[in-house]
């Protein structure tokens, strides 16, 4: 569990690759504090907050929201550090050589 600052209702949709969304909003209630309408809560349930995929020889790791917004939540800063330093350490499971 990781508390994050959320602005808006954007989120990544699920994909065929189960490893593409390593960080998701909670399935049961994605709002730990504050106010959001029931409709907006339903839109965020289980949506991805971070997407990771290989492109060519590198990696693309976009975040839905600013992960270091006002440097308030330290947990998301660790996700940025991991994306920078370990971005090349994962492989697309559909392209593995046996």
Describe it.
By secondary structure, the chain is an alpha+beta fold. It has a domain at about 25-90. The chain is built from 2 helices and 4 strands. The strands form 2 sheets. It has a two-stranded antiparallel sheet with strand order 1-2. A two-stranded antiparallel sheet has the order 3-4. It is globular, with a radius of gyration of 15 Å. The N and C termini lie far apart (about 35 Å).
User: What share of the residues lie within helices?
Assistant: 10-25%
State which percent range the strand residues make up. 5-15%
- Quaternary state reads single chain
Total DSSP E strands: 4
Main sheet attributes: strand count, strand direction, barrel closure: 2 strands, antiparallel
- Summing up helix and strand content along with how strands pair, one would put the structural category as alpha+beta
**Number of helical segments?**
2
Strands side by side in the biggest sheet = 1-2
* Shape designation: globular
- Which spans of ≥5 residues are poorly predicted at pLDDT below 50? none
Helix-strand string: EHEEEH
Average pLDDT level: 81
Kindly report how far apart the N and C termini lie. 34 Å
Radius of gyration: 15 Å
């Amino acid at each position: 569990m990781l508390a994050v600052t959320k602005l808006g209702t954007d989120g990544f949709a699920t994909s065929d690759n189960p490893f593409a969304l390593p960080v998701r909003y909670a399935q049961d209630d994605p709002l730990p504090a504050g106010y959001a309408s029931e409709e907006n809560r339903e839109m965020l349930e289980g949506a991805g907050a971070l997407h990771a995929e290989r492109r060519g020889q590198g990696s693309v790791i976009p975040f839905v929201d600013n992960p270091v917004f006002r440097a308030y939540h330290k947990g998301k800063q660790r996700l940025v550090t991991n994306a920078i330093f370990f971005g090349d350490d994962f492989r697309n499971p559909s392209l593995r050589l046996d």
